[in-house]
Amino acid sequence: MPGKIVIFVALGCLVAGGLSLQARGQEEAYTASVRTSGDTGGKLVQVNFTITKWSGQDEIQRLGKILKDQGQDALVEELKKLDAGRIRQPTETGNQIAVAEKWQDGDKTVITMISARRMSMFETQSRGVSTQYPLGFMQVTLDSKGEGSGKLVAAAKVKYDKKGDTFRLEPYGNGASPVSGVRPLK
């Protein structure tokens, strides 16, 4: 399933080294459209995301170790303490981005953002299945003008598989939603 592949690649940032760009202190802001799914076929929703701090490899490896040693709940608690920016609809406060990483893939720039997702009071009180999916992330691929597309997973869970020495990721619901029209926010 393509959504699961995207999730695996994005969360792989928590444990793998890579060609990360460490552009600290330089804020970047973008706007994009996300295709939501629903009973009536879904709709396009505008989102803005602002990155105020890029996560370094030391921080990403530390978070991967927390996930490996202590599990998803400990990772989520740690993510709640981190602030690398914000992703939101223009009329809402949105979610705090915990981890933001940027790297080059040939002539393309890839940005991955991971957050401990915000849950409504109703969702947490009803203790529905969705509360077992506390992570959200978005990954976009940009060209030289800062324009591109990607995928958004609004709710996912992750666990470490000791037997396979790998991470198992599972999106909630329909998986990844397409992100289009990504461009710098001016």
Describe the structure.
- Helices cover 21% and strands 41% of the residues.
- The protein is an alpha+beta fold.
- It has one domain (2-21, 43-179).
- The chain starts with a helix and ends with a strand.
- Strands 1, 2, 3, 4, 5, 6, 7, 8, 9 and 10 form a ten-stranded antiparallel sheet that branches.
- The protein has helices spanning 2-11, 57-70, 72-80, 121-126; strands at residues 28-36, 43-51, 85-88, 95-97, 99-105, 108-116, 135-142, 148-161, 166-171, 177-184.
Low-confidence stretches: 1-24
Q: What is the radius of gyration?
A: 16 Å
Give the overall average pLDDT: 81
The best one-word shape is globular
Portion in strands: 35-45%
Characterize the biggest β-sheet: 10 strands, antiparallel
Kindly report how far apart the N and C termini lie: 35 Å
User: Pairing-aware structural class of the strands and helices?
Assistant: alpha+beta
**What percentage of residues falls in helices of 4 or more residues?**
10-25%
Overall strand count: 10
* H/I helix tally: 4
Following the backbone from N to C, one meets helices and strands in this order, namely HEEHHEEEEHEEEE
Q: Count up the domains.
A: 1
